Amino acid sequence: MERNEIFEVVQQALVDAIGVDEDEVVGKATLLGDLGAESLDLLDVLFRIERKLGFKVTINDITLMITGGIPDEEFGTEEGYISDVGLTQLKKSLPQIDVDSLRGKFEAERVLTLFTVDNLVSLVETRKGEMASVNN
Amino acid sequence: MDLTDKVMLVTGGSRGIGRAISLAAASRGAKVVINYNHNAAQAEEVCELVQAQGGTASIYQADVSNMQQVKGMIAFILDTYGKLDIVVNNAGIAYDRLVFQMEPEDWQKVMNVNFGGVFNCSKAALEPMMLQRSGVIVNVSSAMSEGGWVGQSNYACSKAAINAFTRTAAVELARFNIRVCAVLPGFSETEMVEGLLKEEKRYLPQIPQKRFGKPEEVAQAVLFLASDAASHITGSTLAVDGGALCTVGIGRPL
Lengths: 136, 254
What we know:
Shape of chain A: globular
Largest sheet of chain A: none
Number of strands of chain A: 0
Number of helices of chain B: 8
Oligomer: heterodimer
Number of helices of chain A: 7
Strand content of chain A: under 5%
Structural class of chain B: alpha/beta
Radius of gyration of chain B: 17 Å
Shape of chain B: globular
Radius of gyration of chain A: 15 Å
Distance between the termini of chain A: 16 Å
Strand order of the largest sheet of chain B: 3-2-1-4-5-6-7
Helix content of chain A: 55-70%
């Protein structure tokens, strides 16, 4: 399955779950900000993707992708901003981010708001790849 | 109220209201999984009755207050029947004490079974229901969730918790095409209220219909809410109490 086919599945799921128009669902749109998704919306989107593609993508998967498994205490500074360790991880997992603009200003607990449609498509691609290697 | 081919779990299905629900559902075509905790023989009997009618049923032992056991039960259902359409959370216990004589453990254990069971079974059934984008959860609450009855503060709390959970879960799950409702029986002729039934002269005057309910009557309300006839009903609490909740107490219960 090509990336653009996965994009279409993700796009349809977002349209059906959140109720946004298709043309709003562009690669760089953030799910929580630009598309206005809430926690229930996110859950709905993921279940629709699972139903369509036959494998699970969970909220945990999203968190893991963003934080790379780095524990909260290391991901955030004492003041609650994303730490340098966290920023280095973000550079890898969310390539669209300009990490320097976040340094010392962006709260760690808001990190999910940076997640874009492209990020979700990448995650689904990765999960699909993992499923394929499990089944082989 | 056709339930043909629907797979239904009835917790506490071996006796009383649960038994009536299991039998009635099976007679309308549902495949029924009769959960029990201690009463294996009675659960088997209900199962055999269903099968004798030409229906499909299984029994499964699980303590609904134990999440691990509940997960095992749901896994068994999915394995055996391939899907789960309806969960009837009926299992419940009572442990009547005046507040003055009640200890913390006395309300905790009632809460753990009555509300904990609702939570555990609902939660465990959620994933398959959300994936198939359909499902119904019917919780057997009680008229005591809304009216005070001497000696039942723990029971009343657990049932009120069920009502609140019903409403919140209904709101969250509606978009997944999962409905969550509750029935509130008054006094039905079951083992749980055996003591009361013996003193019926005291209680009948307080029920407008001047009689106790039959488990089958409660079952009918449950089946209605579980069926497609109730497709636009979610988050509702439905009293099946002969009008008892409408009265402002006459005389004294105890």
